[in-house]
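Can anyone check this?
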Amino acid sequence: MREIILAPSLLGADPLNIAAEIDRLGGNYGWLHLDIMDAHFVRNLSFGPELSRVLRRRYPDSFIDVHLMTDRLETVLPLFTDSASLITVHAETETHLLHAVLSSIRNAGIKAGIALCPPTPISRIEGVLELADLVLVMSVTPGFGGQKFIDSSLEKVRELAGLREARKLGYMIEIDGGINGSNIIGAVLAGCDAVVMGSAVFREDDPASWLAGIGAKIKEAMKDFDGKR
């Protein structure tokens, strides 16, 4: 059975109490997801590299999943290589440099990911999938939390899962945007290995128990799914 990683997005946390919000998760997560927005590639500003560094100092054993929704990767990328566990860049920015960018991330000893916005086809990244440790499928328009899940994103997940199997590649598939308790099982069964959730987690009175419950539901659903194949 595949291990499914729950990755709470700190974009959904109280920005004045991020450490307390993380502590409320009770360790019932796999990764901490950090969305970096530059108000240029997307129409919003969020966190900077100092938060990533503080997270690394405060939670030294945590897997920090940095999602760069930014342009000017030659400037932004090096700011996170001392703290991130994985850095994901968008296929839509500096596409002609994707091979070099992914190689530089991996050469820094960090896992490398590629993100796809909803309209972007998988064909855009087929030539660099061998360099990817992860492919992130955006299931909303990137830039703001709390959006409605785009159902057609699951077709992209299934296509990526099929391509991975056909080409015997090892990348993980992550999904981000509008994921909640009602659609997370469908995302996992479509082929996702990591699931990002923001407001769905942090709006809960007891997010630790909620995450534990979601994890149990995922395991049961996968067990049933595998049994019927």
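Reply from J.R.: I decoded it. The mean pLDDT is 94.
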